[in-house]
Amino acid sequence: MKTVKRFFSKRKARFLTLDTNNTRPFRLVKYVTFTSLIFVLVGTLIMSVLIMQWARSILLSKSEDYALLLAENLNHQIFLQFVVPVAIEVGKIQLSNQSQYERLDRVVRGTIHSFEVDQVIIYDMDNIISYSFHRQITGRRNMGGIGYYNARTGKSTSVLFQKGNFIELMIGLPKFSKLSTYIPLRAEKSVSNMSGPMLGILEIVQDLSQDYVAVFRFKFFIFMTSLTVMGSLSLALIYVVLRGEKIIRKRNDERLRLEAQLQHSERFAALGEMAAGVSHEIRNPLGIIRSSAQLLKKKMLKFDIDNHLPDVIIEETGRLNDIITDFLMISRPAKPNFSTCHIFDIIEKIQPF
């Protein structure tokens, strides 16, 4: 009995080992799948951020080029339509003079009336505002900042001003965004393409708030598209993984069921072999007892006819033999032997009963 228990314990341990070995490769596949998904998701988000920054840099570059082109045209118009005529008529430029200021204002507004410009400021060489769309700020000193001093060296400079809270600045949607471009205002020489002496500094302010709203919408569209694609891919991969786990689990359950059936069959086979051995060992002495009882019955008929003890022994040994036969039939059923017969013959045989 201990040997049989040890046999089935070893088989159970082997089945559990096979189940672990079969599920281990799928766990590795699942790990690789989710790791790859995370890397792809992170890579997509990084790419989206890079595209957003690229769009922002292009916006600033195009706006700066736009301001430089406008400043060149404005410089030309101011010199031809204001500086030269006033110098000829009056001999001296004084923007504190109401008529000169209004004349310069007409030239500037007439030049940029069809362009998207929020503010035009002209500084003199002492960093004093000489002209502005908002006349109340004229005369203020040291308002140019670093852009003014860079322009004094002949280098055009653009400075971006944004206002908003920390979250608005982080997501790229400030309350307002303005790009100030500082360009040297020079006198032109009609006989040469070379620029003349520097007359002042021209500041062109562009309101980029709507452009930043458009960029933010573009960034939001990219982010949502990436998120949607990655979300769909994630759901598909999760579905595949869960489906695979379900299939693996179903196959494992089926294999365990088959293994349990096999164990059951092997158990019955072992019981059958044991029953056959036990029956053989019991039937041999049982046959000797039966034969001895029959021989005893024949001899006792000469001396004591009324003694029925041998009959009892013969009857009980027969009953014990029937029990052993039934036990063998249960542990190892015999295959039925079918044959054709006449039903009337069977009825005639059982009719006396």
TrEMBL record:
Taxonomy, superkingdom: Bacteria
Keyword set, alphabetical order: ATP-binding, Kinase, Membrane, Nucleotide-binding, Phosphoprotein, Transferase, Transmembrane, Transmembrane helix, Two-component regulatory system
EC numbers on record: 2.7.13.3
Limits of the Signal transduction histidine kinase dimerisation/phosphoacceptor domain: 270-336
Matches recorded under InterPro entries: HisK_dim/P_dom (IPR003661), HisK_dim/P_sf (IPR036097)
TM spans (from-to): 31-55, 220-242
A single GO molecular function term of this UniProt record: phosphorelay sensor kinase activity
Catalytic activity: ATP + protein L-histidine = ADP + protein N-phospho-L-histidine
Top-level EC class: transferase
SUPFAM superfamilies: Homodimeric domain of signal transducing histidine kinase (SSF47384)
Region forming the signal peptide: none
UniProt protein name: histidine kinase
Protein's organism: Candidatus Magnetoglobus multicellularis str. Araruama
